């Protein structure tokens, strides 16, 4: 049977991709953030997952404001990154695992969700940057990708509870998968930031620490605020915490925090990284 080994939660700021492309990982501005991935690299080297299920938000690459699904799940044999105008391009392909994608889709639909099913799908910086952070020296990515996009852009947005329930359904599908793969779940985006309007540059350290302090021990605490309240607290892009909420739910109840890192600002964003390990990984 498959094993859900753990979860990686991280920011996906395009500026991080530019820093990687320019080799700025040791630059004083970027080093505190990149150093937070050292425990992640050690954990990945030890666990060696085979599949990455990634909860993220699309930034207009596949879906624009005229056609924005609440949830979309990739079921393609391969995915490619395409630059959205940031001047970064990551050429390595992302191999898919369509059979697992369809099992997830079937469980999600059985759980009364209605995702868009994408047998062709591009991925933007919300997937590409975390993969480059996790496997910086890989000639080819060592994991197969299942991308799950959550709308955090066009209102009305899904509620935190709805995203939690989506994650629970995905977790059920992963535990029912009859393959022997080790699975890492990723939640990308955030934390607090707003890129436009009168509150451009908005950060909320207290809310960010509230999320990080409760993500593992009391994830339902993150459901206390409505989506619009999260926008008020964390900024219009800080609502990407919905991706973290869904990813955390997929891990199940029995897990522990391995490491965390928090650094501000990174390109007007409160950048964070957390590594969580499940009991399944310890006993596997």
From TrEMBL:
Record-annotated Extradiol ring-cleavage dioxygenase class III enzyme subunit B domain positions: 7-263
SUPFAM superfamilies attached to this UniProt entry: LigB-like
Pfam families, alphabetized: LigB
Protein origin, superkingdom: Bacteria
Main EC class the enzyme belongs to: oxidoreductase
Record has Oxidoreductase as a keyword: yes
GO molecular function annotation: ferrous iron binding; protocatechuate 4,5-dioxygenase activity
InterPro entries named among the record's database cross-references: Xdiol_dOase_suB
Record keywords: Oxidoreductase
Gene3D superfamilies per record: LigB-like
EC nos: 1.13.11.8
This protein's record includes keyword Oxidoreductase: yes
Record-linked NCBIfam families: PRK13364.1 (NF009901)
Name recorded for this polypeptide: Protocatechuate 4,5-dioxygenase beta chain
Organism name: Croceibacterium atlanticum
Source species taxonomy: Bacteria, Pseudomonadati, Pseudomonadota, Alphaproteobacteria, Sphingomonadales
Gene name of the encoded protein: ligB_1
């Amino acid at each position: 049977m498959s094993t859900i080994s753990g979860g990686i939660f991280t920011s996906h700021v395009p500026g991080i991709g530019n820093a990687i492309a320019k080799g700025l990982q040791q630059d004083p501005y970027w080093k505190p953030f990149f150093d937070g991935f050292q425990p992640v690299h050690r954990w990945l080297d030890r666990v060696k997952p085979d599949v990455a299920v990634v909860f993220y938000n699309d930034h207009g690459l596949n879906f624009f404001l005229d056609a924005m699904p609440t949830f979309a799940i990739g079921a393609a044999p391969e995915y490619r990154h395409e630059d959205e105008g940031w001047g970064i391009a990551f050429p390595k392909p992302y191999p898919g695992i369509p059979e697992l994608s369809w099992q997830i889709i079937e469980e999600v639909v059985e759980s009364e969700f209605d995702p868009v099913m994408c047998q062709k799908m591009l991925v933007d910086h919300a997937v590409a940057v975390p993969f480059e952070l996790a496997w910086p020296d890989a000639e080819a990515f060592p994991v197969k990708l299942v991308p799950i996009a959550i709308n955090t852009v066009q209102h009305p947005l899904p509620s935190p509870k709805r995203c939690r329930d989506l994650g629970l359904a995905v977790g059920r599908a992963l535990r029912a998968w009859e393959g022997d793969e080790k699975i890492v779940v990723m939640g990308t985006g955030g934390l607090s930031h707003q890129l436009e309007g009168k509150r451009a540059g908005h950060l909320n350290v207290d809310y960010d620490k509230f999320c990080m302090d409760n993500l593992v021990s009391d994830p339902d605490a993150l459901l206390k605020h409505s989506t619009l309240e999260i926008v008020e607290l964390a900024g219009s892009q800080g609502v990407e915490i919905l991706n973290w909420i869904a990813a955390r739910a997929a891990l199940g109840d029995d897990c522990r925090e391995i490491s965390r890192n928090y650094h501000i600002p990174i390109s007007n964003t409160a950048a964070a990284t957390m590594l969580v390990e499940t009991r399944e990984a310890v006993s596997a």
